[in-house]
Each structure stands twice: as C-alpha cells, then as structure tokens.
Amino acid sequence: MTFMKALSSRTAALLALATFLVLNSSAPARACAACYGDTSGSQQGIAATWGIFAMVIIMFVMLGAVAAFGFYLRYRAMHPLPDYDELLSETNAQPKPGTSL
Description:
Elements: H1 3-23, H2 33-36, H3 43-78, H4 84-90
C-alpha cells in the first residue's frame, strides 16, 4: 500500500467518524451566555469585551513592531554602513589591522 493511499484512507475514516459523531449527538451544545448572545450588562459579557479589546491592542502593537522592523531593514538597505577600511581612515586614533603600535 502506498503512502498516499494510506493517507487518503485514514483521512476518509476520520472524516466519516467526525460526521457520525456530529450527526448522532442529540444533546444541545453547551455554551456560555455570550455564545447565545445574552450579554446585556452581565459581568461575563463585560469581561469578554475587555479581553477582546486587549487582544486587538496587542495585535496592533505586534503588527506595528513588524512594520517598524521592516522599515528599519529598508532604511539600512538604502543607507549601508561604510567599509571597515574607510572607517579606519577617518579616525587616526586607531591603528590599522596588522600593524604594530
């Protein structure tokens, strides 16, 4: 049996099992009041609102950090540092590599 046939038969079996379990579950879904839409002024609804707000703020901070790093890389690509020998020729206080004091 090849790997692809084994993988496809395993995937088909898992899909059939998931379909069977979903269709044969007669109990209602157990969810909180927020999932059913009844959050008018409840403590749980207020806490969920603040949690979502905090996650959105964290997401924007992280995306901003990635964008800032991208801009920094763009700036460094457009303004590369000078060569090492050129830096040494600008400052006479440091000896060139390979020479004695």
